[in-house]
Each structure stands twice: as C-alpha cells, then as structure tokens.
Amino acid sequence: MSQRELTRLEVIQRVKRKTLKQKVRDKAGDDKAQRQAEAAQRKTQAIDILKGIEESASDIQDTQKRVAVLTGALDLLWKYDEAYARTNFIKSAGALSDRFASDTTSRDERSDIRASMGMLLMAFARHDSRAAGVQLSKFQKILEDVLKGNSISPMQAAKRDWAGALLAAQSIESKVLRSQAYIAACATVL
Known about the structure:
Largest sheet: none
Order of helices and strands: HHHHHHHH
Strand content: under 5%
Shape: rod-shaped
C-alpha cells in the first residue's frame, strides 16, 4: 500500500471512531432525556396522588387520623403547589373551627378537634407562620366563645370569617349543600 492509501485508511478509521464516540454520546444524551421525562412524569403522578389523598381525606371518620393524613399530604404538596396547599390548610382549619363551634359537637369531639387543630396549624406554620397564626387567633376566639357557653351557628361563623366561609363552601361536594353554604355566606355581607 502506498503512503497515500495508508493515510486515507487512517483518516477513515479516525472518522469511524469519532462517529462511534458521537453515537455513544448521543445515546447517553437520549437516555438522560428519557430519564428526566420519566422523573417528571413520576413527579406529576405523585402530586396528583397527594391531591387525591387530600380530597378523599374527608372519608376518614376519626378527626385526628384525618388531620394527620391531610397535614402529611399538604406538607409534601407545599413545595410543588403552594397555592393549593395554602388554600386547603385554611379550608381544613375553617372546617375544624366550624365543627368545634357547632352546638351539636360533644365535649369529647371538641377535645379531638383541639388536638387536631394543633397538629394542622403546626404543619401550616412550618410553611407560613403568619397565616397559621391568623388561623390560630380565629380558633382561639371561637374556643373562648364556646367555653363561655356561646356555641355559634354556621351563619355567625360566616360573619366572622367571610373568606373562610367561601373556602368551606367550595369544599362541599353536594351542589345543593354547596349552594346553601354560599347563600349563607353571602347573606352575612348583604
């Protein structure tokens, strides 16, 4: 073989090696992109699962267990959907306050609600201590009224907390009951 042919073969081999290396890099890049897409999909699924848990927690009868499930889900969701988590922390605090204030709530239930409210607000305070403090103040006012023997009706509760009444109404699944809750909340300001 002539020198020229040898040089030509060397060039061809170098090109083949470079092409092979590029293919390996491209494959690695494709694998990385695929892994990233799969990770994003798993993250989206996890968020949807946590939102589903939050939405179905109302099926749990035991107050403390329900609030433990809620706080766990909302705590994890905060980083990925802060507005959703914030809204549901506030909605849950409002629902507990309303139940605590109801004249049909027993003494034992109120004790469970107080413990559950503490758990909920501590979890909320890890993310937004100011908003958790506002919810605590509202609950303390209701607690004082109840201890004085002044249970309050849902209408009175709506007068105290217009935004909370609207959030609570949004959480009701039944259209009829949700509409009645909206009417009660609106009646307090009209």
